[in-house]
């Protein structure tokens, strides 16, 4: 724990999100004390987060807490380097939740581990094995480290982020993690909730897939248009509550999961078009784990969105269209004993260090 002069913090963009990265040893050990401190650091609650690091949007009100791993050996047999706890903070509401992972913030964990000396960089490229504490799942991040330093420059462009940066490959061990305990948590590919057919799926991000047309949408509406549609948002929230109960998630009135994803036919040569509610704001693109979950959810025949999708040939990327472009992932799903299992999940992201120094939390209210 740092002294009164400030707390060491590294602010990073990971994928299409931005967050504050901390060593666990430099935050209070008690979760309640830690969360209270983080709310003051991020400037929550306040719609503008004017008195903290938060960027007035759920995508920029995120925290990563990292420590040397206590997870031992992964299911694939390799040693795990670091533990990563993701925390989603509210913007205008004072809450901190660990009920979901974040694959975009995950893209910065490997570089952060090298920056903080938790992992020694190699001469060319470094791989960091990461245990995602939220779901006890494992991913390996690989990125350039010429001369033993993280190279944030590079030629990879990802839609939703201006310019280019160094690539970070994220490879998950089969499934990208499931907080609900199954790829299809209800045990069915399709459920009928309040007269709407849905698919409940969780390949790292508990999600509810719906056909946009079933809710009177075309699926190509802008995030601003969807956020302004109060009737749609009310209906989605009713479906979300009912779907969460079917998924065994209980009361989610104060939770950020499950996410709600409207699906429609691809328009730009991809596999499927998406509009993601997270769950009340609309994502300007789509998250890493959200993309992996959508892909896994629409692959099985009979699932919502399968008939809308233009599924890729074997070995080709699964291209998910979103409001600001597309996101390519690599996902495999196969039937096994009456259910479905994920055989591979991988994605390519970028990350960039924005500042490294001391952050000064606002005074207690």
Description:
This protein is of the alpha+beta class. The protein is globular. Residues 73-77 have low confidence and may be disordered. It contains six helices and 16 strands. An eight-stranded mixed beta barrel has the order 1-2-3-4-6-7-8-16. It is 16% helix and 32% strand. The chain starts with 6 loop residues before the first strand and ends in a 6-residue tail after the last strand. Keywords: Isomerase. GO terms for molecular function: isomerase activity. Belongs to the PrpF family. Pfam families: PrpF. InterPro entries: OMA_tautomer-like, PrpF-like.
Contiguous helical run count: 6
What's the end-to-end separation, in Å? Answer: 21 Å
The average pLDDT is: 94
Q: What string, H for helix and E for strand, traces the elements in order? A: EEHEEEHHEEEEEEHHEEHEEE
Class from secondary-structure proportions: alpha+beta
Bulk shape? globular
Strand residues, percent: 25-35%
Largest sheet: 8 strands, mixed, barrel
**Low-pLDDT residue spans:** 73-77
Q: Measured on Cα atoms, how large is the radius of gyration?
A: 20 Å
Question: Helicity range of the residues?
Answer: 10-25%
- How many extended strands? 16
Give the neighbour order of strands across the main sheet: 1-2-3-4-6-7-8-16
Family: Belongs to the PrpF family.
Pfam family, one: PrpF
Keywords: Isomerase
Protein name: 4-oxalomesaconate tautomerase
């Amino acid at each position: 724990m740092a002294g009164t002069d400030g707390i060491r913090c590294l602010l990073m963009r990971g994928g299409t999100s931005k967050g504050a990265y901390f060593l666990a040893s430099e935050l209070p050990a008690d979760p309640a004390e830690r969360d209270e401190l983080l709310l003051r650091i991020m400037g929550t609650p306040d719609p503008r987060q004017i008195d903290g690091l938060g960027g007035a949007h759920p995508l920029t009100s995120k925290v990563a807490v990292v420590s040397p791993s206590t997870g031992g050996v992964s299911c694939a047999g390799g040693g795990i380097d670091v533990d990563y706890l993701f925390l989603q903070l509210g913007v205008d509401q004072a809450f901190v939740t660990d009920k979901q992972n974040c694959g975009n913030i995950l893209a910065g964990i490997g570089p952060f581990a090298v920056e903080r000396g938790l992992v020694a960089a190699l001469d060319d490229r470094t791989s960091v094995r990461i245990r995602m504490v939220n779901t006890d799942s494992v991913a390996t991040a690989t990125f350039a480290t010429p001369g033993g330093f993280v190279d944030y420059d590079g030629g990879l462009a990802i839609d939703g982020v201006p310019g280019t940066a160094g690539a970070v490959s994220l490879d998950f061990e089969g499934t990208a993690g499931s907080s609900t305990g199954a790829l299809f948590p209800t045990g069915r590919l399709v459920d009928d909730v309040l007269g709407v057919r849905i698919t409940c799926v969780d390949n790292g991000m508990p999600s509810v897939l719906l056909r946009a047309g079933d809710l009177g949408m075309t699926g190509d509406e802008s995030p601003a248009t969807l956020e302004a549609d109060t009737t749609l948002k009310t209906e989605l929230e009713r479906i979300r509550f009912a779907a969460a109960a079917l998924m065994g998630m209980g009361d989610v009135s104060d939770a950020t999961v499950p996410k709600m994803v409207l699906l429609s036919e691809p328009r730009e040569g991809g596999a499927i078009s998406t509009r993601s509610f997270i769950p009340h704001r609309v994502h300007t693109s789509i998250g890493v784990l959200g993309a992996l979950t959508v892909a896994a959810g629409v692959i099985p025949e009979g699932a919502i969105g399968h008939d809308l999708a233009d599924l890729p040939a074997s070995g080709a990327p699964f291209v998910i269209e979103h409001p600001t472009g597309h996101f390519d992932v690599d996902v495999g799903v196969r039937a096994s004993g009456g259910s479905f299992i994920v055989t591979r999940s991988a994605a390519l992201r970028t990350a960039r260090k924005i500042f490294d120094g001391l952050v000064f939390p606002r005074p207690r209210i």
